[in-house]
């Protein structure tokens, strides 16, 4: 593996093939590591200025690699180009571009020498002045055309003029004037607005480099029907690119929209109900819904239904049946929250559980005295069982039992809210036989 520098970019070459694409029209060589793929053919692909490419035969068996500058046969003289593809993949590209193999191919003379490169650089230095001068000549002749670029061949004996014109142009007088002015052979080549935009380059409305100047190698015509399939607004300012033509990116997703359209009923079908007939108004491919109108020319009484409902009504109409309305009868089924994927309750479902765990303390019926109202010698109330609380509700006029021991204290008058001391025990009453 070796490294080479070409036009300021580093290329990684292995077995004569480049893995990294350093030019716009390069073809990725996916056969670079296949044994024997390099010696499969003698044809070599050579690229020149702009989008011009040619296929030449390596009759001299030169050891050519991708990126080599070579001198090739031209009419007249020779031209200087860069090798962009070698090996078996060249035949596939020739078949793709409809290049006839049976015709006599042009040859590769040699690898470019220093004298060839000097002459080529001298011819390239005249291209800009020639383009400005030729534009002035075309304007003087009153031709409705624009000369966008001029390309000199490697030996400087021939120049190719690329021009843009909306109508057919008679440039026979122009060729004579240009040949007398520049003393070279003249070839006029018409290009489209898309090729011109790709040659100049720019930034698209998406914020990226134009597709025609970055990776596109051929241009396919774009029709307004592609925009209608995608329900794009028919606004010329939004649909047109920098070349004043329809954007090439409109064709990128049209096939997907056509396939999705097959899952919806035809737009020409009229839905019949007992009240009115409904015509197609618009479709939503993403939600698979269709909007129908009672008037075909304008929007009136719009009703949006699903595609399944539309197919059901179409089948009913074929059987001679007509529904009451387009809208499907709603079934009384509980609707779950869209965010409740697992069938759980709301996020506040644990709040009630916490409240249940916190039990409030109940106050006694008579009420408790505040700490400031209690006597200093009185103890605070304590939790007692139900049997002990029953003794507290005795009548104040109840007399204490008589047969007490010497050590027993007489009972004291207590209020309803007073509590007996802890050592108090209920006396046992004696029964007489």
Count of helical regions: 12
Strand line-up of the largest beta sheet = 4-5-8-6-7
What fraction of the residues are assigned to beta strands by DSSP? 15-25%
How many E strands? 15
User: What is the overall silhouette?
Assistant: elongated
Residues in helices, as a percent range: 10-25%
Give the C-alpha Rg.
Answer: 48 Å
Low-confidence stretches: 1-22, 385-408, 410-416
SSE topology sketch:
Blueprint (H helix, E strand, L loop, with lengths): L1 E5 L2 E6 L2 E2 L24 E5 L5 E5 L11 E5 L4 E8 L3 H8 L9 E6 L2 H11 L2 H14 L5 E7 L5 E7 L7 H11 L2 E6 L2 H8 L10 H4 L9 H6 L6 H4 L14 H8 L9 E2 L4 E8 L4 E5 L9 E4 H12 L32 H7 L28 H7 L41
Parallel strand pairs: 5-8, 10-11
Antiparallel strand pairs: 1-2, 2-3, 4-5, 4-7, 6-7, 6-8, 9-10, 12-13, 13-14, 14-15
Helix pairs in contact: 3-4
Describe the structure.
The model is unreliable at 1-22, 385-408 and 410-416 (pLDDT under 50). The chain starts with a strand and ends in a 41-residue tail after the last helix. Among the domains are: 2-112, no CATH class; 122-191, K homology (KH) domain (GMP Synthetase, Chain A, domain 3), CATH 3.30.300; 197-260, no CATH class; 271-318, no CATH class. A hairpin with a 2-residue loop joins strand 2 (9-14) and strand 3. Helices cover 23% and strands 19% of the residues. With 433 residues, the protein is of the alpha+beta class. The chain contains twelve helices and 15 strands. The strands form four sheets. Strands 4-5-8-6-7 form a five-stranded mixed β-barrel.
């Amino acid at each position: 593996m070796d490294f080479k520098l070409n036009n300021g970019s580093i290329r990684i070459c292995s077995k004569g093939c480049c893995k990294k694409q350093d030019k716009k029209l390069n073809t990725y060589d996916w056969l670079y590591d296949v044994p024997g793929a390099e010696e499969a053919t003698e044809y070599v692909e050579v690229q020149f200025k702009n989008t011009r490419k040619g296929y030449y035969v390596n009759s001299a068996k030169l050891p050519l690699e991708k990126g080599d500058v070579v001198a090739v046969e031209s009419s007249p003289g020779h031209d200087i180009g860069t090798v962009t593809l070698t090996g078996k993949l060249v035949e596939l590209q020739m078949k793709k571009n409809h290049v006839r193999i049976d015709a006599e191919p042009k040859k590769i003379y040699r690898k470019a020498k220093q004298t060839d490169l000097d002459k080529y650089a001298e011819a390239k230095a005249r291209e800009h002045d020639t383009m400005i001068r030729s534009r002035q000549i075309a304007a003087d002749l009153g031709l409705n055309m624009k000369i966008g670029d001029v390309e000199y061949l490697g030996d400087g004996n021939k120049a190719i003029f690329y021009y843009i014109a909306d109508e057919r142009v008679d440039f026979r007088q122009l060729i004579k004037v240009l040949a007398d002015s520049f003393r070279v052979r003249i070839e006029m080549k018409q290009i489209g607005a898309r090729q011109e935009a790709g040659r100049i380059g720019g930034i698209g409305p998406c914020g990226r480099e134009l597709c025609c100047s970055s990776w596109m190698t051929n241009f396919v015509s774009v029709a307004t029907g592609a925009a209608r399939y995608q329900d794009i607004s028919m606004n010329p300012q939004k649909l047109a690119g920098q070349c004043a033509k329809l954007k090439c990116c409109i064709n990128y997703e049209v096939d997907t929209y056509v396939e999705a359209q097959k899952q919806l009923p035809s737009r020409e079908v009229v839905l019949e109900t007992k009240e009115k007939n409904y015509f197609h108004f618009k479709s939503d491919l993403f939600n698979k819904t269709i909007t129908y109108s009672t008037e075909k020319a304008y929007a009136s009484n719009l009703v949006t239904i699903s595609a399944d409902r539309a197919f059901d009504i179409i089948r009913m109409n074929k059987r001679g049946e007509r529904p009451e309305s387009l809208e499907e009868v709603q079934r009384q089924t509980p609707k779950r929250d869209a965010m409740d994927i697992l069938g759980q309750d709301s996020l506040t479902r644990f709040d009630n559980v916490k409240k249940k765990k916190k039990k409030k303390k109940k106050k006694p019926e008579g009420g408790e005295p505040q700490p400031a109202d209690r006597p200093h010698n009185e103890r605070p109330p304590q939790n007692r069982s139900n049997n002990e609380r029953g003794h507290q509700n005795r009548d104040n006029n109840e007399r204490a039992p008589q047969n007490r021991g010497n050590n027993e204290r007489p009972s004291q008058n207590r209020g309803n809210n007073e509590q007996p001391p802890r050592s108090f025990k209920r006396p046992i009453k004696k029964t007489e036989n």
